[in-house]
Design goal:
By secondary structure, the chain is an alpha/beta fold. It has helices at residues 7-16, 28-37, 48-51, 63-74, 95-107, 123-131, 147-150, 160-176, 188-197, 218-221, 239-255, and strands at residues 20-24, 41-44, 81-85, 113-115, 136-141, 180-184, 202-205, 213-216.
Length: 265
């Protein structure tokens, strides 16, 4: 049986050139499946908002909602590391407020690490959490909590100035003690540059093949929303269409009196 995924194990994977697999998850049955599949990190993202709760963005997601879903996922994860997102305004107000909220995700939710967005500006928060024994993953590039400031969901770091800033941000996060960082929607060559510039694992999404690992959203991987597609995603199943067809069949059978089947069926 493989050992549980820990921070030292993730670091060794980077050093050995072994890719790290991260998949988002928001409920118990999905957690069971992803854990059995061998994911390294099962991640309760604030993408909960636009994948499960019906919000247009991640911004409305609350700490209570994150704790609630993290607790559910915790019950299904036995091998992977459980990572939870810090939602909007749970860490931006002050390092002490961030500490209280990160503590909730670990103490109440059962998370083993937390993730937050931002570069050098959040380094003091990262340092405060790490000093309290809370592992922190950073997040650079397209940061969904700043979607309005960024002007939409667009590739970041295209100019030399922006690229240099992101490299500096990555180094600041690593220096502050982050054990890893997500690189979202940045050019592949910039992701490669960052990955080679920091000693900790980088996890890409829409950032090319050169990161130390990849993260994808559960619903995008398995086609839970048949009409929603992204360039950086590969659909490994069309579960949404399968459920839709099965539900229609059930509806038809009930209305036709074919379900439940008779005693001689």
């Amino acid at each position: 049986m493989e050992p549980r995924v820990t921070l030292p194990l993730l670091q060794k994977k980077k050093e050995r050139g072994e890719k790290i697999v991260v998949i988002t998850c928001y409920d118990y049955p999905s957690a069971l499946l992803l854990d059995r599949a061998g994911a390294d990190i099962v991640f309760v993202g604030d993408s909960l908002g636009d994948n499960v709760l019906g919000y247009d963005t991640t911004l409305p997601v609350t700490m209570d909602e994150m704790v609630h879903h993290t607790k559910a996922v915790r019950r299904g994860v036995h091998h992977a590391m459980l990572l939870a997102d810090m939602p909007f305004l749970s860490y931006q107000i002050s390092p002490e407020e961030a500490l209280r909220n990160a503590g909730r995700l670990m103490q109440e939710g059962g998370a083993e690490a937390v993730k937050l967005e931002g570069g050098a500006v959040v380094a003091p928060v990262v340092e405060r959490l790490v000093s309290a024994g809370i592992p922190v993953m950073g997040h650079l590039g397209l940061t969904p909590q700043s979607v309005h400031q960024l002007g939409g969901y667009r590739v970041q770091g295209r100019s030399q100035t922006d690229a240099d800033r992101l490299v500096a941000d990555a180094k600041a996060l690593a220096d502050a003690g982050a054990f890893s960082m997500v690189l979202e929607m940045i050019p592949a060559e910039l992701a490669k540059r960052i990955t080679e510039s920091v000693p900790v694992p980088t996890i890409g999404i829409g950032a090319g093949p050169h990161c130390d690992g990849q993260v994808q959203v559960f619903h995008d991987l398995f086609g839970l929303y048949p009409d929603r597609r992204f360039k950086h995603n590969r659909r490994y199943a069309e579960v949404g269409q399968t459920i839709l067809e099965a539900a229609r069949e059930f509806v038809c059978e009930v209305r036709a009196g074919q379900f439940p089947p008779g005693p001689n069926a």
